[in-house]
């Protein structure tokens, strides 16, 4: 998913939730052993679900996992020269 996010940033030229979701859906491989909530969200994205809704489909309060932390590195690379205001 980190690679999918990096590809999304390259294609869209910026951080874009819908572009990232489409990239995640393209890269999704059910055989990779995702946790149930991630599998549900990715399956839904692959079937065209709205990415604004998939993060809370399985766990209403949102995930307590570390998936976001594992994927975030490409954002730091893409925005390494951005002004502080843009980062906020």
| Average pLDDT number | 88
Taking Cα atoms only, what radius of gyration do you get, to the nearest Å?
A: 13 Å
Helix/strand order, N-terminal first: HHHHHHH
Strand fraction = under 5%
The main sheet comes to:
none
The percent range for helix content is 55-70%
Description of the structure:
- By secondary structure, the chain is mainly α.
- Helices cover 59% and strands 0% of the residues.
- It has helices spanning 2-12, 17-27, 36-46, 51-54, 67-71, 73-78, 84-87.
- The protein is globular.
- The two termini are 23 Å apart.
- The mean pLDDT is 88.
Quick synopsis:
59% of the residues lie in helices and 0% in strands. With 88 residues, the protein is mainly alpha-helical.
Strands, helices and their partners?
Elements: H1 2-12, H2 17-27, H3 36-46, H4 51-54, H5 67-71, H6 73-78, H7 84-87
Keywords:
88 residues, 0% strand, 7 helices, mainly alpha
């Amino acid at each position: 998913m980190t690679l999918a996010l990096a590809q999304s940033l390259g294609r869209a030229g910026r951080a874009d939730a819908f572009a990232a979701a489409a990239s995640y859906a393209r890269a999704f491989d059910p055989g990779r052993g995702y946790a149930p909530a991630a599998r549900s969200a990715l399956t839904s994205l692959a079937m065209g679900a709205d990415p604004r809704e998939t993060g809370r489909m399985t766990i209403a309060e949102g995930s307590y996992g570390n998936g976001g932390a594992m994927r975030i590195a490409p954002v730091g690379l893409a925005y390494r020269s951005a002004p502080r205001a843009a980062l906020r």
